[in-house]
Amino acid sequence: MKIFFKTLLYAVPTLGLMFLFSSSWLIEDYKKWTNLSNDTAKETIVIVKESQIARDVYQELSKKNLLDSSLYFYILARFDNQNEQIKHGEFTIPPYSTPRQIYKTLTTSQKKQYSFTIVEGKTVKTILENLSQRSNIKHTLLTDKKQEQTIKELGIKKEKLEGLFLAETYFYSKNNTDISVLKRANSDLNKFLEQQWQKRSDNLPYKNSYEALIMASIIEKETGVADERALIAGVFVNRLNIKMRLQTDPTVIYGMGDKYKGDIRYKDLKEKTAYNTYVINGLPPTPIAIASKASIIAALNPKKTQALYFVASGGGRHKFSNNLKDHNKAVQQYLRNSK
Fold it and tell me: Is residue 318 part of a domain?
């Protein structure tokens, strides 16, 4: 018995030293591992699902040759960063990242962002079609649905969606829904429109901000020249004030729908649609396209002018006239220059 205790007395310190030595080596090796860059020379996309735990995340990182030790990753996640939980989403891992940098990316970085741009002058049909083609967004809206269903899902209290989104670039993460992007675009439009409505010029012929938005959409389709927007707004406001029809071609085209093949014929100008401003009085019932911020501002701050007419003069610009006689001359000049 004495021999056993004597042997144990010598063995325990030896085992203790071995443990301390191995622990010390393990700690040093772990430290080296956390700061050792991987060999991946390109950005790597990593997707962490909501239900995944650290082990699942390691397997995903290992498949992409970003990490090579499940034990050390567990220590990194469980003990070294107790207050930093891995987020779910899509992340971009930079080239040659160390394990510590990778973990920081997964816990503190913004998720990878995608962008979707709503372009001024486009119709809602085009916008929904473009959005439906995005592979990195969760699709909940169908382009072949009746518009009433889409309006209901978006919670918009209008009969048509046309013009009800702000022309802007919107960022989203993978698997965000299409409806969430459109809701932001509609909310941003409402905020901007209300801000500009409060700053509008006096004595405008609009009953509400929605009518101003309709006017802005017409201005958007009439010109792409920045310094003409307020002047065109001034012409249309003059016409509305004297009960003169707007007689603007973009409204005719919109009312024609799929029948428009690139040219407006005389009979098209005479055909009665809800949007043909050669036939109807006042504004059409809805916007005809997405209006830019600049066109909204122009509609609410028209330039004071005596002009009642304008016609293309080349280079995207227009010739403005105060009376029909001068306007007809400008039309003839344009026709001569077009030959």
Answer: no
Express each pLDDT in 189-240 by its tens digit.
999 999 999 999 999 999 999 999 999 999 999 998 999 999 999 999 999 9
Same domain, 186 and 61: no
Question: What's the confidence (pLDDT) of residue 294?
Answer: 96
Burial 142-176 (b: 16+ CB within 10 A, else e): eeeeeeeebbeebebeeeebbbbbbbbebebbbeb
- pTM of the predicted protein model: 0.75
Q: Which domain holds residue 152?
A: 114-305
Q: Do both 128 and 256 map to the same domain?
A: yes
Return the closest-CA partner of residue 221 out of 282, 284, 174, 175.
284
Contact yes or no for 302/201 (Cβ under 8 A): yes
Please enumerate, as own/partner, the contacts of 304-313 that have beta carbons within 8 Å and a separation of 24 or more: 304/234, 305/231, 305/234, 305/235, 305/238, 306/238, 307/231, 307/234, 307/235, 307/238, 308/235, 308/238, 308/239, 308/244, 309/235, 310/231, 310/232, 310/235
83 contacts 105 by C-beta, under 8 angstroms:
no
Total tally of structural domains belonging to the chain:
2
Tell me the CA end-to-end span of the chain in Å, nearest whole number: 120
Same domain, 100 and 121: no
Question: Residue 283 domain-assigned?
Answer: yes
